[in-house]
Structure formats: C-alpha cells, structure tokens
Amino acid sequence: MKKTIQILKSNKGNALIMTIFAILVIALLSYPIYEFAQSSIVIRHIREQAQLTLDTYTITEGKEVVHSIKSGHDYTSIINKQLFLDNYVKALKANPNLKAYSNEQLYFDISDMNVAFIYKDDLKTYVSFTVHMPLYLCGQKLLTRDIPLSLQSRYNLKY
To answer: Domain map of the chain by residue range?
Structure first.
C-alpha cells in the first residue's frame, strides 16, 4: 500500500496509474446512475400501459353500464374487474401473476393490485398497485425498488 501511495505521489510522469484509477472511479459511479435511469424508464412504461389499459377498460365498462341502464337493469354491481387484469397482462407481456423475467432474473413484480369504481353521473375507475423492481450488480440482487402507483380514469355516461 505504501508503494502505491509513493507511486501516486511521485512526479516521474507515471500518469497511467492515475488514469486507470480515475476510469475505475467514474465507471463505479456511473453504473448506479445507469441502473436507476433504466428502472425509471421501465416504471414509466408500466405506468403508461396501466393508464392505457384503464382507459380502455373504463370505456368498455361505461358502454355496458349505459346499455344496461337503457335496458332497465343495474349493471354496475357486476362490473368485470378481471377484464382489466387480463388486458393489462397482455399489454405488459407478463405472466398471469404479473411478474416479468429477463435472462432468468426477475425484471419486475406487480403486487397489491386494487381495481375499484365509483358510479354516479359518470363512471370513475381507479387502480392502484406496487411495482417491485430488483436492481442487480454482476448477477446478484443488490436491492429492490418499490414504487406505488395510483391511476384513475373517467367515462361520462350519456344516455
């Protein structure tokens, strides 16, 4: 260790060691930034797909509610919440249990899925869930990033 410090302190033009050291430090500092940015992009994609799926779900179910009210029935008690989950799994290309894998490692996991609706003059749908995204270094899981998401959509019922 003393020899390394002496080489670093010497002014004999041995800049190769300092250059290698600087490159290693920069690489070690940039990797977590890269991983965080990549996970943020994936989270944004998951959120956008959830919003698109929720909007489609709200429109589909809103049309069913209007049709049932015109027919004299109350369809709101049997709104199909499973339809949202099925369409969301297809949109994400994930397993039915809302887990996705990449290179045999867990890429993300969605849990605590809650789909709800409120019906008055319009149909408001809500979905909330938590995305668990593990971060890896050299194939080893370092930590898991947990992001709660809540989304809503609205359909104006026109009779």
So the answer is: 45-156
